[in-house]
Amino acid sequence: MLLPDDETLRDLLSRLDLESVSTSPHDGDDFYVGTSPPAGNGRIYGGLVFAQSMRAAQATVAPERVAHSAHAYFLRPGDPEQPIEYAVDRIRDGGTFTTRRVVAHQGERAIFNLSMSFQVPEEAPSRQIDVEIPAEPRGEAYEEGIVRGAAALGGSITREQLGSLPVQILVEDGLDMTAGSTGDREPELRAWFKAVGPLPDEQALHQAILAYASDQTIVVAAQHPMPWGIMDPNTQSASLDHAIWFHDEFRIDEWIYAVHDSPVLKGSRALGRVLFYARDGRLVASAVQEGLMRRREGAGLKMRSRG
Question: What is the CATH number of the domain that holds 67?
Answer without folding.
Answer: 2.40.160.210
